[in-house]
Amino acid sequence: MKHRFMGWLVIGLTAIAMAGTGALAQERSDWPGSVKIGTASQGGTYFIYGAGWGNRVQEQLGVNTTAEVTGGPAQNLVLVHSGELQFGMTTMGPARDAWDGKLEMAPGLETRNVRAMFPMYMTPFQVVALQRSGIDSISDLRGKRVGVGPRGGTASVYWPRFFQDLGVNVRLQYGGASDLAGQLQDGLIDAFAFAAGVPISAFSQLEAQQSVNIFSFTDAELDVVTANNPVSPVVIPGGTYRSVPGDQTTVAMWNYAIAHKDMPESLVQRIMEVVLDDNERMVRIHRSATETLPENYTTNSFMWFHPGAVCYLQAKGFEVDERLIPPEMAGCH
């Protein structure tokens, strides 16, 4: 009798396991074997952060991921919209422009094939210059050669707008974060104005090799910039950089991970779980991920969420504004 019971138990457990395997296989039946994630230039936060969550997806879900070096947030929107990339990361300022067809690099193109996934972190805007240059304020940049990141990136779009708002004429230089940091060291540019999750790795590497000034806006400049641009004040805690012991106030924009609308709902929901359910692991990838929390989904006010993201958020008890639910969504499975 005991042997018969054990036999039925083994058969039962095997059936359950096979059912689970079958359900898992069915869920994955429409998943791509590999995906590409649009990041930005090497040396910037996007590349580190994007490669990090991509590796987590590959480890946890078995989908091969590649972090693609791109021009940054604006180009990622265009590449994901066109289907050349399956996933990407963007800043909500360029995303709003792209959503409305007002993106400088693709005028008239409304990137409505793009869907929001998870909130990443706020991108503060900061400037670094070598200490020996004597440059330690925005007004000091008049007439100087200033690097603003790669064309199409958040920094290259918004720093020129900030300079114009403040009446500060500069000579703009474009390039990747690592490249511009090297140009600053070599004296080819006078300052590097960037935007990325803090600490910005290129800035940290610079201050490890040179005495630098890292600065942002005065209170009066903050008032002008926030009045004219989709940014909010943010305080960068003292000690974030070795050379900045005190708190520093600047402006920032939120960043989001994005997906093409045709990515499978179940895959995106599993990606949301991988990234958002283990924040400690994400913070080990980059400190900026302390803000990679599901409750920060409310910082998206215009872009449709991917159905998989909606299902994840609803399962966690969050209410998604009906204006942000995509037209193709038929309900969670």
From TrEMBL:
Keywords, alphabetical: Receptor, Signal
Highest taxon listed in the record's lineage: Bacteria
Span of the signal peptide: 1-19
Protein name: TRAP transporter solute receptor, TAXI family
